[in-house]
Amino acid sequence: RFPYLCYKNGGGAFLVPYLIMLAVGGIPLFYMELALGQYHRQGAITCWGRLVPLLKGVGYAVILIAFYVDFYYNVIIAWALHYFFASFTSELPWTRCNNTWNTPECVGLAISKESEFSNNETSLDWFNFSEVITEVTNWTKNSIRTPVQNITFLTHQPTVDIVASSLNLAPEIFSNNTTDFNNTDTVAILRKRNQGASSAAEYFNRGLLELHKSGGIENLGIVKWDMALCLLAVYLICYFSLWKGISTSG
């Protein structure tokens, strides 16, 4: 979590207070915990009970904190395990918007001519992509009149040139927000989808967690058995890694 916390709290400026607290509090407390455990050869509860019986509750607090942190991080590892198994499919489920959990605002991470294009429309749905479109000249339809909208990937000049030349238009036309054109050979509807939700985000929030099916903590919903099995697998891995003592983990 350190890179995320560093980025969230100011980037490089976060390192100054972090390193100070690490030297003043983090490393000394960590060393004390290791030294007490090695010297007494007991767990946290017994160790603190021997040192200061009045502070035996500190040992219980240490166990309780480890218990809660274990729940938190094992769930994250279970998510990663779920993604690991999902990545073995022929088509990654978080790259498309043709799934049952997707919304109309979904923006796919990839283009599929078979799934995204219909007989009446030719469309390119992009989300922060800058790849050069080389197949646009092969997508044709009957002559219509439709707006062209400026989107992120059109700011890259090689892409602008290819799209403009394939539509027989000047590259400067894409600097406007909307422009009408009439072309009998190739027509591409370039949709501005900057306000949409990525298919990856919808897969996590709606496909994996199914947050849209719950109105709050009072409505937990049913058990997601795929995630429950992943969480069980994580606990089994942790158990068999440590069942003969900490020495089995190296």
UniProtKB/TrEMBL annotation:
Keyword presence, Cell cycle: no
SUPFAM superfamilies: SNF-like (SSF161070)
Cellular localisation: Cell membrane
Main location: membrane
GO molecular function: dopamine:sodium symporter activity; metal ion binding
Membrane-spanning segments: 12-31, 58-86, 222-242
Residue ranges that the Swiss-Prot or TrEMBL entry lists as coiled coil: none
A GO term from the CC aspect: presynaptic membrane
Keyword Cell membrane applies: yes
Its membrane topology: Multi-pass membrane protein
Disulfide bridge map: C97-C106
Superkingdom of this protein's organism: Eukaryota
GO terms for biological process, alphabetical: amino acid transport; dopamine uptake involved in synaptic transmission; norepinephrine transport
Matching Pfam families: SNF
Keywords assigned: Cell membrane, Disulfide bond, Glycoprotein, Membrane, Metal-binding, Neurotransmitter transport, Sodium, Symport, Transmembrane, Transmembrane helix, Transport
PANTHER family, per the entry: SODIUM-DEPENDENT NORADRENALINE TRANSPORTER, SODIUM/CHLORIDE DEPENDENT TRANSPORTER
UniProt similarity note: Belongs to the sodium:neurotransmitter symporter (SNF) (TC 2.A.22) family.
Protein name: High-affinity dopamine transporter protein
